[in-house]
Amino acid sequence: MTKRQLVGEVVVAEYTTFCAESFKLHQAPPLGGLVIADNVVGLVYSARTEGLGPIIRKGKEDNADGEVYNLHPELERTLRTQFTALCVGYYAGKDGYKHIYPERPPRVHYQCHLLDDAALCQFTERPDYLRALLNASEPAVDQALIHLLYRAYTMREAAPTRRAHLLAATTFLSRLLKGQYDRLLAILETLEGMLGEDYASAGE
Question: What's the CA gap between 8 and 181, in Å, rounded?
């Protein structure tokens, strides 16, 4: 395995999703980031910071952003940041990544890591992972998918390689979303806006 950044600990696990609590407040993995826990790979599509109980400390109108944490340092102990990931595959050791649900969900209290750029490129080498994403019912999954496609493109250094990868991914995506034109168009147009001229050149 390549280097992985420790980002949290699993607190809830199902076959299709798992939730982890960040070790540092307000530091959830990025939307569309790939995380791994107990060899289960997940796509981060949701995050929230909330109080462990009723929030009784608040800032004042004349406070600068973030000043409330200096005035009430105990907030760091009474708030938590959690993120939820959609299961999109698992790591099978020497056989690499598999783009299907694992036999079991990750175990609670196991560490959760953010995959680095090299591992993300390995996982997205083939577009098969898109099937699990498009079948998910979570409302924010398309936005997470767009961020993943963008990251998978920009992490590939050689222009011909990343253009070929993007073309293969969007072609596969078009086949999967046949009959869902509005959804496909929304994904492609948003991705085009993020990539700019790079997106146009990818289709040449």
Answer: 37
Neighbouring residues of 181: CB distance < 8 A, sequence distance ≥ 6: none
d(CA 109, CA 45): 20
Phi/psi for 17 (5° steps) reads -145, 160
Q: Would you tell me how many other CB atoms lie within 10 Å of the CB of residue 3?
A: 11
Q: What is the DSSP string of 136-167?
A: ---TTHHHHHHHHHHHHHHT--SHHHHHHHHH
Token digits of residue 107: 């175990």
Residue labelled with tokens 């699993």: 10
What CA–CA distance (Å, rounded) separates 15 from 134?
A: 16
Nearest to 28 by CA among 83, 87, 65: 83
pTM above 0.90, yes or no: no
pLDDT, tens digit, 9 for 90 and up, residues 34-79: 999 999 999 999 999 887 765 555 555 556 566 666 666 666 667 8
Which residues have C-beta within 8 Å of that of residue 81, sequence separation ≥ 6? 21, 22, 24, 25, 26, 27, 28, 47, 48, 49
What is the Cα–Cα distance from 45 to 60, expressed in whole angstroms?
32
The more confidently predicted of residues 163 and 2 is: 163
